[in-house]
Write a structure and sequence with these properties.
Layout lengths: L7 H15 L1 H12 L42
């Protein structure tokens, strides 16, 4: 293509394919709009979201005075 040799038929089909690929949501919406409202589709009932468990209670800042990792990165002298 950079040297000026382009198969125009293949380039046009690739370009049309890109328009179809990236325009698929719009094409589908247009086709659904042409079908008109109603039809034999019943409204869908959505189940309510399940209840989430309550968050765990907050712990005190220092529950235990023992810390096995205290000073682990400090070299001893």
């Amino acid at each position: 293509m950079l040297s000026g040799r382009v198969d125009w038929r293949r380039a046009a089909s690739a370009l049309i394919g890109c328009f179809i690929l990236f325009g698929a949501p719009g094409i589908a919406a247009a086709l659904q709009g042409l079908a008109g409202p109603g039809g034999d589709f019943a409204p869908r009932q959505v189940a309510p979201a399940p209840m989430l468990a309550p968050p765990p209670p907050k712990l005190s800042p220092n529950p235990s005075p023992y810390d096995p990792y205290a000073g682990a990165s400090v070299p001893s002298e």
